Amino acid sequence: xxxxxxxxxxxxxxxxxxxxxxxxxxxxxxxxxxxxxxxxxxxxxxxxxxxxxxxxxxxxxxxxxxxxxxxxxxxxxxxxxxxxxxxxxxxxxxxxxxxxxxxxxxxxxxxxxxxxxxxxxxxxxxxxxxxxxxxxxxxxxxxxxxxxxxxxxxxxxxxxxxxxxxxxxxxxxxxxxxxxxxxxxxxxxxxxxxxxxxxxxxxxxxxxxxxxxxxxxxxxxxxxxxxxxxxxxxxxxxxxxxxxxxxxxxxxxxxxxxxxxxxxxxxxxxxxxxxxxxxxxxxxxxxxxxxxxxxxxxxxxxxxxxxxxxxxxxxxxxxxxxxxxxxxxxxxxxxxxxxxxxxxxxxxxxxxxxxxxxxxxxxxxxxxxxxxxxxxxxxxxxxxxxxxxxxxxxxxxxxxxxxxxxxxxxxxxxxxxxxxxxxxxxxxxxxxxxxxxxxxxxxxxxxxxxxxxxxxxxxxxxx
Length: 463
Prior knowledge:
CATH class of the largest domain: Mainly Beta
Shape: globular
CATH superfamily of the largest domain: Cupredoxins -  blue copper proteins
Radius of gyration: 21 Å
CATH topology of the largest domain: Immunoglobulin-like
Number of strands: 31
CATH architecture of the largest domain: Sandwich
Largest sheet: 7 strands, mixed
Number of helices: 5
Number of domains: 3
Distance between the termini: 44 Å
Strand content: 35-45%
Structural class: mainly beta
């Protein structure tokens, strides 16, 4: 089998209605590839490509994949956004042992939810993702919506040094204590100037994934009719017109339908911050059409249980720390920083404790640590996330999806389903879900440098 045939086999989809597993091997290894505007960039890659192979299966099937680690460091795979068995979640020291160089690990689990998901390491994540380890998992609906074309755009940014190599300043104090690691090269599927061609009259399903360490995207596609149909893999309750900026924090996804009604060139832009960036282009050929297609129908909902708010167990998670914080850092941070400085001098890559959750910097998550709280399986949970910092935080929940109930005291009408919610500075957000998946699960900031600096915790769902 040549390389092209191997990559094609990695992206193979199961036949409609199949209940058998699509067994495959996914290798993680160093590679030199044309990425981020460089002809030859030394990266770490899944399946010899950046981003990794698109894994595509139907809802209700089994994913059966063996990770072969050919990296110089240990690694794992976290299947971001999936409701899956705890042992398959990919958190080293908590749900599985790290996969050492040269070793293999088998991931096997069912796929109950259709949607756009992705996979990435959860060990030394700030470095391993930045080096290129990320890929997309598409779980197709049993009856997909009618479209004429589909595009998958994985958004990322890259910090390159003056020699055009990936900058080695991982987990520096400024990144950890401020907005995280931001790169100067913004890419779609690892490339600059991404472009797709459409014919007028076509309807495009566009799957957007933010795989950046820390960058928040405020996306717009001016000039075309578009509708938001899913967020974080979960269908919206009603189809929503995409006529404003669409915020995607790290780890978040969005599915949109775009109608190519008129000829011309249309660009996807990022308007977060002071500079507008052009990310990709849609080139539409043919005679412009005056007839407007009806809005797409809502996708069928996934089988996620709704929380019982009247009987929910309630907890508050207070986010603190970071630079410019009003409350200062706990006294023990000074001694912890000194200890970590010594370890860094010995060659370890470690972040300083900078962030707190309920007053503590959670610098690691292992099975020996005491969970933040514990609930019985099937118990509804109501969490209040209070951001007492001057920074944005995409808070990500493992193993479950939650409904967003309110923001700063204002109830939300549709209670959208998410696995990640973006908190602005000084936000307070209420979420709720049914804790129906046994095990110890993370909830953490998906700005990877923030998580490495203490902004995350663990809770337990008892079997």
